[in-house]
Amino acid sequence: MSGSLSLQWKQKLLLNLLIGLDSNKQSRLKIIKISFLLAQKIKFYDFVPYKYGPYSFEMDKDLRMFSNNRWIYMDEKSIYINHIAIKHLPIEITHKNEINDIANNFSNMNENNLLDFIYNNYPFYTQNSLLIKEHKKEEQSAEIAIYTIGYQNLTIDLFINTLIEKGIKTVIDVRNKPFSYKYGFNYSWLNKYLPEFKINYRNIPELGIEEKYRKTLSREELWKYYFTLLDNKEKSLYKLSNLITDRPSVLMCYEMNPYDCHRLRLARRLNKINNLQVVNFNTESKKWEKSEY
Q1: Residue 81 to residue 262: CA distance in whole angstroms
Q2: 146-290 is classed CATH 3.40.50
Q3: Which of 27, 55, 142, 208 has the fewest Cβ atoms within 10 angstroms?
């Protein structure tokens, strides 16, 4: 089993952290918060401001995978390592100094003090907390524009953080089929969890491109087909324009580069209806950039 096992670098680092904490049992809350603090020192999981401070959906997914493989024992409140199983995993020890530093400073801190430390030092993560009455970070609200984003090289946590930081209030999924092999980007997941961050989710599949055309047409033929499709979707276009002018919204699809994606062609068509600026999220620079025409 171990010879064929393939772990991602974040999963290996998480196992190293669990080993570094070296406790018979730690609370899930503490492990997540300590992982967040480690992520402030080295590249690790992305975290969102959730019900009890910083939280990582991707990390939770990996912990559940560890539990299913019996590398750890986990219930709703606590986690502890199966040392026998861990010993046979092909993981090298990395970032030992950073892990030791985090473990020495925070592993013996009680949960309340740990949360107070995080809330005081990272106020962004207070804004959805159920544990405090007065949040230290006010919600943002973006100016009305035609925003677009592709999730190709974003984790679900970084995607949500990007929306929160900008002040996006509605995600408009313009995929023809809103399903993905990438964790967190299926219709059901987005429809369930985005509202917990006060972000609406809408899917308008009729403004996407069917897979059979994406796979069979050349790039030039594809855009010609899409422009013709939009010519016959006037009702949907005005419906979408109304959504965008009502509250800060973003057109979401897969491709990292908007110039490779139909969402930019759609955004430009919307611009002809409402004359709003088109603004794309650059996933390399992590900045919102006005579109060039």
Answers
A1: 46
A2: yes
A3: 27
